[in-house]
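User: I'm writing a tutorial on reading structure tokens. Could you give me a worked example: one chain, its sequence, then its tokens, then a sentence or two explaining what the tokens reveal?
Assistant: Sure. Here is the example chain.
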Amino acid sequence: MAEPFPGPVLDILEAAGDRTVFEHADEEVSGARLLGMVRRAVNGLRQHGVGPGDGVAMLLGVSPGAFAAIIAAHVVGARVVGLRPGLTGPQREHLLRDAGVWITDRPDGLGTRETGTGTETEAGTGAGARTGTVLVLDGLLSAEDDGVRPRVLARPEDVARLLHTSGSTGVPKACAQTYAAMTAGWAHRPDAWPPAVRQLAGRLDRFLVFGTLASQVMMEYGLLALTAGGTLVTADPPAFPDALVRHRATASVVTVARLTKLVADQRESPVDLGGLRALMVSGSPLEPGRLREAVETLGPVVFHGYGQTETGMISMAAPGEPPGSLGVPPVGLEIRDASGRPVRHGTEGELFVRTPAQCSGYWREPALTAEVFSDGWVRTRDLGRLDASGRLWLTGRARDVIIVDANVYYAGPVERLLAVHPSVAEAYVVAVPDDSTGEAVHAFVVPSAGRTPDLGELRALVAADLGEACAPTRLTLIGEVPLTAAGKPDKRRLAAGG
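And here are its predicted structure tokens:
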């Protein structure tokens, strides 16, 4: 039986040997050295009693040490929880509730004490927060390196990681991915690469990483780059295009908003991006016009991926695909009508998919799991069609969401929160294009009698409860909401008129 994940990652680092696999803060790290860091982190975690099934939260950036800590947590069979920047206090507390150990490279404000195996602290996230053991990354990596390949303790049926959605319903939903699913993932398995991914892999010589390696997208493309023989190059903050030039990057991941800004910057003050070979756009739809502008300015470097937290990658369009197409999906995919029956090619319907590495459900959310995961299929709640060549085209959303900086936010919680303000009688929100964030929240409000809603007050109300990304950037006052023929609020008319 093949060794489960992250065994293949250990093989990749071992095979890399003296080859540089990471460039960070002007330092080159070889595969052998990074593997040694993994061994140290594994031994440090074991000294703290971390093993299969234990929850370990990662508050980490994109350093080699962060990579080593994440892989080490998987080696010991832990349930890894990654925290992204920008979470509210309640959201962070929600994510940390099932993690007994937190690993951080940002210990600011935490009271620490020295122990025999590194720096440790006890800390909470606020009033009523559960206390956990916090391990500072440098301390963890000071454990002994015994030079012995660590034995992977991961059990296939155990949850390997919790991948959180954006938290637009108030708190993030945790998608549970098992070790069996991670082992079946495509990034570290060249034999499983579909044509578009294989083409992409050949362009990842110097892959620029930023933010956090606890990110699902950043880690998986990072693993793809390492598997393809590339080097991970860190940039934080990732100021484009300067970071691409300074680090001689051949590839990186971008949101639609970042791509739009990069194109605008290149048109206004061009720099030499001759070494750039791939930009992976993910998180939100890329309009055909935006793609044409990018190709005209940057050349044939745009790969447009489509996937979800619940499924991982579903499809990818390589350069040269018709604008708007997402390529031919390499996974199981059905387009179904409202009654759940598959439809013919060319007919619009809701997308249901099955991928090798899809999650098994939502952590401790059986009712919600039953709505989305059924008989091995995942309901995407996105609308689309397959053309005669099998290419996928998205046509809309079956769910009412706004995608801000590649994160999905539901309209309902924002509307309900706005409606509690004394100046608001009714509230409706829609997505509007935004050059900075891809999409933004536009609120249409029916005022209460004798009151005039203020955008600043409404923004503050939403930001405090749901986060800044959910706060409306535009406000339109309306006398009444337009209705569809079925008597429901017609948001398409709102958006078209706004």
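What the tokens reveal: Residues 7-183 form a domain with the Rossmann fold fold (CATH 3.40.50.12780). The two ends are 58 Å apart (CA to CA).
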